[in-house]
Write a structure and sequence with these properties.
The complex is a heterotrimer of chains A (about 270), B (about 325) and C (about 300). Chain A has a domain at about 5-110 and about 180-200 and about 210-270: Rossmann fold (3-Layer(aba) Sandwich), CATH 3.40.50. Chain A contains eleven helices and ten strands. Chain A has helices spanning about 5-10, 60-65, 95-100, 115-125, 135-145, 150, 165-175, 195-205, 220-225, 250-255, 260-270, and strands spanning about 20-30, 35-45, 50, 75-85, 85-90, 105, 180-185, 210-215, 230-235, 245-250. In chain A, strand 9 (about 230-235) and strand 10 (about 245-250) form a beta hairpin. In chain A, helix 4 packs across helix 5 (about 135-145). In chain B, helix 3 crosses helix 6 and helix 7 (about 205-215) packs antiparallel against helix 8 (about 220-230). Chain B has helices at about 20-65, 65-70, 85-110, 120-135, 135-160, 175-200, 205-215, 220-230, 230-245, 250-255, 275-280, 285-325; strands at about 75, 80. The chains are: A alpha/beta (about 270), B mainly alpha (about 325), C mainly alpha (about 300). Chains in contact: A-B, A-C, B-C.
Chain lengths: ~270, ~325, ~300
């Protein structure tokens, strides 16, 4: 554990939490292209960790490295360590499928399956061989995702029949139905209108009581509103290509009000983007 | 993987857990079976080539390349050659290609270049697709009882008045090249039309806009911009339609007359490789079967080459647009 | 610029100042340009109508010649011998259904599994590229050669023509259609749905079974229906794999009748009765093919 949790927690009112995922990315490649380098991102329990930065800074790549989604891209290569409860998820013995069972993900585009709302939410439960009361868990997940009232009368309808915002909350319900340990959210509001965005943001704040959340957002206001800790990524173009790296990470207020790095200050003031 | 199940994760309500041993076994065996099925298709093609080639070997050893240039097919004397069948195959397919190609491309233009309200275009598209659904034997039957009686007076008039032209050198007594080629044209028309439609649809809308923006009429846009842009796709359609025609069997066996002669006349009976196989195989003795296997190998080689060329052209056509996008 | 003289001239003419010093923007109906366009449009219309004549002629003949002879006897009775009147082709319907059934049972599982490999498991591998190419080549493979192949492999070794050999020959023809249609249907399942399934911690097999196959099912079924329609109408490979039989099917390892071969055999006979039966059998065969074609359309139209 290289990160100093004491320092991370300074400035926030909540007591110091444990670190669920200690991510130390050394080099992340797509083929020969170095996408991200030298970024240490500890993710604390029951907090929202926001990832911000200009486009092309690799914040999504970092997030998708945390549950090994990037392994689906054949040319992806990872150097470093992602410690999850003390185990490196990039250890040779680790199966990425198992990692994804504990570390759920909500994607940029709402992506319900072409099946009923109920089956969408029950998907993960069935997948994990859940033997208990399915109806109860589905309802609980939909309530947790703040869409139970809207869909309770049409659980048999296709998940694709919902509006974009409802679809995204359905996807969140699907992700939390199995109550995974960590939720990774990759710009979950980018395809939503402002009202739907607000509902999803409120939901995230509720969810952090139970879950640990890592959130990629292209919207600085969103990071300010919901993130406890914010990581700012920059782009290094000195080597001729665009390589992302962590510039600064700390309590959200500190990052936005008194950042240590010049680059961060410029970015949060909107001097470049 | 058993040692890394993240079992120290403590969450009371969570149902997250690693896939069961059964899930893993299923995953591995299913992927194995899928790989095996894909490999099976490769094996099938190899097996087809090896089997037909192997069975043709004795005849190849016996007749050599002379088989391809000899005109005899005599079971009694054991003399076999397939030049008339190769000629008939290529000649009938070429005629069909010209007819079916012209109509097929015309229909593709008709269907894609806003000549019709979309509802009517649907009707025409359905007609063409239904044409593709009619079985070969049914076209054969139709050819015998509708097309040949219809063609005969026309053919005989042409022969009587223009008999000097080699194409009309004989009269049409019944089955012959003309009805066979006509039916063949009808049968390859849907292939040519549908691939050409795809080729024309692939053209980005901006190309069309650019043409109209220059003040072209619809036909100027079609002839000078759309067709040249889709040319390689249309070429692929023609080559693949030609390949279809080469291998077409039943209608030809019923309409071409099964006569092993080489003639330029459209009204003379002829034969094709596929029709030869269809008409001779069921009653062939061992010696003739060997020769027929050689003929089958020749047909296989011709169609494989033509189809491979067609697919290569099509791939080239598709890639051109992908590069542009 | 490859603007032809025609166009250039007329454009210039159009641009010359008219009395109001403005180019006329009206259509000039007697211009060569317009004439040419009209001529080509008319030609295309004629071509399209001409191309649909054979279909209507075939349908007319089927209904008039075949329809008049279609009754319970023709659908159930055995084929008549040369001078007999009456008779039917019940055994040929059974034979066609059985052989197409065998072909479906053989080709559909293999085809879909191979498509899974091509579309999901390893789309960019050498094997996938090779198989994809071969499947496309096989769609243009002369059906008679499937017959020759199965004759060499099965008929010669089993020493008899059989429904089994006929079914396998048809399966060889169905396989590429099923593979290519199923691959396309699976590849069209949105990537974000597959990502969602992977993100939930599905194994690849679970992604395929729980998401890709159900979502792609309409497309896959459409391909299967089209393949069945094609196989039902295909006769060339049956000529010397199933041969023909004048009796009802009793075992899968004996020569078997089929509608297509019956039509082929009867079409050349000099007897009115047989020719009428050939038309009636054609009508039945076309109806079978059409049913599967229409099924394919209905299933294909359902959108998820």
């Amino acid at each position: 554990m290289n990160a100093n949790p004491e320092m991370m927690a300074a400035g926030t009112a909540s007591p110091r939490n444990g670190i669920v995922m200690d991510c130390q990315l050394e080099k992340v490649f797509y083929g020969d292209f170095l996408a991200v380098r030298d970024s240490k991102v500890p993710i604390e329990k029951n907090k929202i960790t926001g990832f911000i930065g200009p486009s092309g800074c690799g914040k999504s790549t970092v997030l998708r490295s945390l549950n090994r989604m990037n392994d689906l891209i054949p040319i992806f290569r990872f150097q470093g360590k992602v410690s999850y409860h003390g185990q490196d998820i990039y250890d040779k013995k680790v199966d990425p499928v198992v990692v994804r069972r504990y570390i759920g993900m909500v994607f940029q585009q709402p992506n319900p399956f072409a099946m009923s709302i109920y089956d969408n939410v029950a998907f993960g439960l069935r997948l994990n061989g859940f033997k208990g009361n399915l109806d109860e868990r589905v309802e609980k997940a939909l309530q947790g995702a703040a869409c139970w009232n809207e869909v309770k009368d049409k659980l048999k309808n296709s998940g694709l029949s919902l509006s974009g915002g409802q679809q995204q909350r359905l996807c969140i319900a699907r992700a939390i139905a199995t109550e995974p340990d960590v939720l990774l959210m990759d710009e979950p509001c980018s395809a939503l209108d402002p009202i739907a965005t607000r509902r999803v943001e409120e939901l995230m704040i509720e969810l952090k009581e139970k879950y640990t959340i890592a959130l990629v957002t292209h919207n600085m206001q969103q990071a300010m509103r919901v993130a406890d800790t914010t990581a700012f990524f920059g782009v290094d173009i000195s080597q001729g290509s665009r390589t992302g790296y962590l510039v600064e990470m700390g309590p959200t207020r500190k990052i936005f009000e008194e950042p240590e790095q010049q680059l961060t200050r410029q970015y949060v003031r909107g001097e470049f983007s | 993987m058993a040692s890394h199940q993240f079992d120290n994760v403590d969450r009371s309500g969570s149902v997250s857990g690693p896939p069961s041993g059964g899930d893993y076994a299923l995953d591995r065996s299913f992927r194995g079976i899928a790989w095996f099925s894909a490999a099976l298709i490769l094996a099938l093609v190899v097996y087809i080539v090896v089997e037909i080639g192997g069975k043709a070997m004795p005849a190849i050893a016996e007749h050599g390349l002379g088989f391809l240039t000899s005109t005899a097919w005599n079971v009694q004397t054991g003399q076999f050659g397939i030049l008339p069948q190769i000629w008939g195959t290529l000649y009938s397919s070429l005629l069909a290609l010209i007819l079916g190609g012209v109509f097929g491309v015309a229909i593709a233009i008709f269907l894609t270049q806003d000549f019709l309200p979309s509802r009517l275009a649907m009707v025409f598209r359905t007609i063409i697709e239904l044409l593709a659904a009619i079985p070969s034997v049914v076209f054969g039957l139709w050819g015998i009882y509708v097309l040949i009686p219809l063609l005969r007076p026309v053919a005989n008039w042409l022969h009587a008045n223009l008999g000097g032209v080699p194409f009309f050198g004989t009269s049409l007594s019944g089955p012959g090249l003309a009805p066979a080629a006509l039916v063949l044209a009808i049968m390859i028309l849907p292939t040519v039309a549908s691939i050409s439609v795809d080729a024309l649809r692939q053209i980005p809308y901006k190309v069309k806009e650019a043409a109209y923006g220059m003040g072209t009429t619809r036909w100027e846009a079609i002839l000078k911009v759309m067709l040249p842009t889709a040319s390689s796709g249309i070429l692929a359609a023609l080559v693949l339609g030609f390949g279809r025609a080469l291998g077409e069997t039943m209608a030809l066996a019923m309409l071409i007359g099964n006569s092993n002669q080489i003639s330029l006349s459209l009204f003379a009976p002829a034969n094709t490789l596929a029709a030869l196989l269809a008409s001779s195989f069921p009653e062939a003795g061992p010696v003739e079967v060997r020769a027929l296997m050689y003929a089958a190998l020749a047909l296989l080689a011709i169609t494989l080459i033509v189809n491979a060329v067609g697919l290569a052209v099509m791939k080239f056509a598709t890639r051109k647009f992908e590069a542009e996008r | 610029m490859s603007v032809p003289d025609l166009t250039l001239e007329s454009s210039i003419r159009n641009l010359e100042p008219t009395s109001s010093r403005m180019p006329s923007l009206h259509r000039a109906p007697l211009e060569i340009r317009a004439l040419k366009s009209g001529f080509l449009t008319a030609l295309t219309w004629i071509g399209a109508i001409l191309a649909s004549v054979p279909l209507f002629s075939v349908i007319y003949m089927l209904l008039v010649e075949g329809g008049s002879r279609l009754n319970w006897e023709t659908l159930t009775a055995l084929p008549p011998s040369a001078f007999d009147l009456g008779g039917g082709f019940g055994n040929a319907i059974v034979g066609t259904v059985v052989m197409v059934g065998i072909a479906t049972l053989v080709s559909v599982p293999i085809g879909i599994l191979a498509a899974v490999y091509l579309a999901i498991l390893d789309p960019d591998s050498k094997l996938a590229h090779t198989v994809r190419f071969l499947a496309k080549v096989l769609t243009g493979f002369p059906s008679i050669l499937a017959g020759v192949f199965v004759y060499a492999v099965m008929v010669v070794t089993m020493k008899t023509y059989s429904a089994l050999a006929g079914g396998v020959a048809l399966a060889v023809l169905m396989l590429p259609t099923v593979v290519l249609a199923a691959e396309q249907a699976m590849a069209m399942v949105p990537k974000k749905m597959k990502d969602a399934a992977y993100g939930m911690g599905c194994t690849r097999t679970q992604v395929i079974w729980k998401v890709v196959l159900p979502t792609g099912a309409p497309g896959i079924l459409t391909g299967v229906m089209l393949a069945i329609a094609g196989a039902a109408g295909n006769s060339a490979p049956l000529l010397f794999t199933a041969l023909f039989s004048d009796y009802y099917l009793r075992s899968l390892t004996e020569p078997t009748a089929s509608l297509a071969i019956l039509i082929f055999n009867f079409s050349g006979m000099p007897y009115e009765n047989q020719i009428q039966l050939a038309w009636a059998a054609s009508l039945v065969l076309v109806l079978i093919v059409l049913v599967f074609n229409i099924l394919a359309r209905i299933i294909g139209r359902q959108k998820y």
